[in-house]
Amino acid sequence: MIERMNTLFADTLKKLRIERGLSQVQLGKQMFVNGSTITRWENGSRLPDAAMITRLATVLETDVGTLLSAAADSDESQIIIMVDDNKAVLSDSILVLEKVVPSATIMGFNGPKKTIEYAKANRVDLALLDIELGKSSGLDLCRALLEINPCTRVVYLTAYPDYSLDAWDTGACGFMVKPLTPESVRGQLKMLRFPSVANHPLSEGDVDE
Questions:
Q1: 20 to 30 A Cα–Cα from 104, which one of 68, 79, 122, 182?
Q2: Domains, the chain, ranges and CATH?
Q3: β-strands 132-133, 136-137: how paired?
Q4: In whole angstroms, what separates CA 106 from the centre of its chain?
Q5: Cis, peptide link before residue 179, omega less than 30° from 0
Q6: What is the rounded distance in angstroms from the CA atom of residue 205 to the CA atom of residue 100?
Q7: Per-residue pLDDT of the chain (209 residues; tens, 9 = 90+)
Q8: 60 and 48 in contact (C-beta within 8 Å)?
Q9: 163 to each of 168, 169, 175, 185, 192, how far by Cα in Å?
Q10: Is the whole model's pTM more than 0.70, yes or no?
């Protein structure tokens, strides 16, 4: 499991909470999130998105820029996964991704099972999924990944540019035609505004029921 610690934001949040005389549970109630969410924010294992950071600033009576800056400086290596049942295509595509996003942790998988296991143990920021995965479907895998983490951005990969528009009903946010090129990857990431504090993938919003 890859552990990424957002220590600057965590330390800043803890300091502001203590200065306000709030416990983690009390802050969680004011933020309308589970107390465990505050714990994860303060131990650095999770980072709230921009909307939650803005709400935190209001509750803690501090400048939102202070928290946003801490979040930006805490942002470490992002995790990108690619899933394709063709090993040669997967290998070539990973080389392209490593060239375009050298600071990211990039993992490749041939099928859904190990992909889902990895996504459950690691917070995936971006998933590039082949639509046709042998007997499996990239569309179903997309739904599974978004159930694990709704903030994961999913981009479909296909060799057929006229593939069914049903792909867009699964919550994906992009579509690319294989083979990948540095130019096509850069163009897609730019459209996703990746990475961005305002659309930060490491978000946490466990709402109390």
A1: 68
A2: 7-74 (1.10.260.40), 79-199 (3.40.50.2300)
A3: antiparallel
A4: 13
A5: yes
A6: 30
A7: 333 445 788 899 999 999 999 999 999 999 998 888 899 889 877 777 777 888 999 999 998 888 877 776 555 567 899 999 999 999 999 999 988 888 777 899 999 999 999 899 888 889 999 998 988 999 999 999 999 988 889 999 987 766 555 566 666 778 888 999 999 998 888 777 444 333 333 334 444 44
A8: no
A9: 11, 13, 10, 19, 21
A10: no
Two tokens at 142?
A: 């997309």
In angstroms, rounded to a whole number, what is the distance separating the alpha carbons of residues 160 and 126? Answer: 21
**Tokens, residue 111:** 């099928």
Retrieve residue 160's tokens.
Answer: 């057929």
